[in-house]
Amino acid sequence: MLMIRRASLSIVLAPFVTTCAHAQAPAPSPAARVWNTLSAPAMDPVKSAHTENLEIVRDRVHITLLDGAIQFAQPVNGVTFGAAFHGKGRVQVAPPNPIEAQQLKLFEKQDKLDMSFTDATFSFTDGLADDVAKQVKWQTSGGLNDDFYAKRQKDREDLGESAVPRLWQGVLSADRVRTAYFLADLKVAGKDWVEFHEDALDPEEITVGRWVDVGPVKLFDVWMSFPAGAKTTVGAWKDAQTKEDFSIRGYHIDAGVSSGAELNATTRVDIDPRLTGQSVLIFDLDSNLRLDSIKDAKGRALSFYQSRENKDRSQSYGNYAAVVLAQPLQLGEPQSLEFHYAGKRAIRKAGNGNYFCESSGWYPERPNSFSARADFDLTFHSPKNAVLVATGEKTSETVDGNTRVTTWKSEIPLAVAGFGYGDYKVANDKAGEVAVDIYANREPDDLMAQVQRAFESGAVQGAVGNLTPSAMAKTMGQEMANTIRLFSLYFGPYPYKHLAVTSLPISYSYGQGWPGLIYLWSGSFLDATQRHEIGLPDGVQLTDFFRAHESSHQWWGHRVGWKSYHDQWLSEGFADFSGILYVQYRQNMKEALARWRKEKELLHNKDLHGHVIESLGPIWMGRRIRSSATGPGSYQDLVYSKGAYVLHMLQLQLVDSRNPDPDHLFKDMMQDYCKTFDNQAASTEDFKAIVEKHMTRGMDLDGNHKMDWFFNQYVYGTGIPQYSFHTSVEATPDGKTHVKGELTRSGVPDTWKDAVPLYAHMGDKTVRLGTLGVTHSSEPVDITLAGKIDRVSINDYEDLLADVKE
Hints:
- The structure is a single chain.
- By secondary structure, the protein is an alpha+beta fold.
- Among the domains are: 31-236, no CATH class; 583-714, no CATH class; 722-805, Immunoglobulin-like.
- It is 22% helix and 35% strand.
- The strands form nine sheets. An eight-stranded antiparallel beta sheet has the order 3-4-5-6-7-8-9-10, sandwiched between helices. The chain has a seven-stranded mixed beta sheet with strand order 2-1-28-29-27-26-25. It has a seven-stranded mixed beta sheet with strand order 14-17-12-11-20-23-22, with no helix packed on it.
- β22 and β23 form a beta hairpin.
- The radius of gyration is 29 Å and the shape is globular.
- Mean pLDDT is 93; it is low at 5-27.
């Protein structure tokens, strides 16, 4: 997914989205009693105590209530779930590894987190009350009886991160050990509230961070996040579904969309239980789509709660829907739930026949949907005069009065599904057997219509012609078909039978690739003259590169998904690489090299706080790179650009200059990767194993047929080396050339290694000689080459993410 910041026209990260909670529907006892108690907690007058050096330990989190008073909330369903503390306390957390230590240093300038606090609230289902009871004597009177705990929970709801749904789930679970939850909210001087989570249903059980003001909203900065116990983060995510209480097998969605931008839907979700005894299931659903019922397979109305309706509020209230089942989940007993909901803001009208349809949130889904796959069976009821397109194959189309009814079915299980509709002109093309259909709006959206009127009235000088996406529909079909041809050659077969491309209104400046369906910013549908006249810079960034980036997501994200946020660079970094690869073929090598140098420039740039982008953390940190300590574009500038460079370096390490197709080894590797993880999620370690399967002898710098040296430096680490390469060439009596000099490296640890490409220049001809295995900070160069050579060089094709001085 690419977003385009119109002010600077650089690609930026999508807006941060959070989840939160609020009760919206009544529920019968006992579920309603539990929810209502959790939502409006009352303190227990007989469960208060003075604390002195009371220890609360959750894995690496050590909380000490040095001196003060603690009071617990009244229990519900036999479970004590909340507490408030006033007094003096201390919290300490030792980072589990260098990566988390680097992140803590970025945020807090501490090697080990050590903070004092004055107030705290605790929300839990893990037996904290029993831990505390062993260390205190209950007071018979004098309890705090204040509403401090309740007020803090309300504040969390306003932030979009209420703990109530998760507490509800834990309290009603038959296995409270496996679903244990703990949240400590500590009031720290100068930091406001700092949070410490332990969630047994999260592969990274421990999370530490805080909410920070960023413009009109608050963002949650993750200082540290890691698995509990001795598990490594890589091991915790090896099976991305391990901690899931259920998986989704299939969707049956019957949706209606109107000319007034309304959406109503009945969605049946078929689920497979993964955790016996679970009564409460939590889904993500846009809070602007209001639920009015959830039923089970027997037609029984189920109790549910939904986050407050967000409307147009800047700070989201969250997007969850929590439902309690009639009977708890049992392994081997699939269930189906039917959701009925409706609302307006999931679709936005942007002009005559122009609509923006959100790509996610319009049906109930799981947070980590790209790590799983489900079948989709879709039915849409849309205005007769509109054209609707969706993921999957269209299986029927009928007209009933003023309504057009279309049905769509996924050929294979998909990670996500989406749709678009409007007054489209449809242009058709083909890439081999793949049908490529462009759905381009016939009329400009409101903003572009305003721009066109300004030119036509003479208020703005120039000529822009017709600013409608449909004018470029045929050209777009040809261009998108070309991307399919190239990527099929490099990465293997296109995974679906057709590709549909829709135009997004100009004010939604991004692109997104869904399976078989691409949402493409309409700025990419303008010709060079139009872009110039309205102030958009011409060039490959908004055309060839942008289109190809989104097209390649059919492979990166869909044919091969990602297991966790740590692995999303395998999608976005690979898509950026693919965009530049297409520029190389569509334009020329000079344009492609200019793009690679731009990517490196982005990594050298500084964020709003003066940090060099590349130094913010490894690309493996994923979405955590964006925070109040970095900047809105830092995630994309780092993960997309460096992720692309990682694949580019591997491509050039695999170049076989003696073969008619120098990229054949790289193509073999990428096609093996796609075939091995076809329609599955992959991790960084999965990709590394594929690289090691195809690596050449020149890449084996450790002599163990492993690529640890490369991934530890460029994926799990930070650093851009600086190389100085100075050589002299001298002709020998026998017609050869003697090359002598030195290659020195700085700016990175002495243990750094690189496979450095070496090129020979003979007049206008450049020949790749091979690679130098550089394992020391200074390496002598003393070689004799056949023939007359004018000079030798390194990094001619940006083979390395490095700064080179020759």
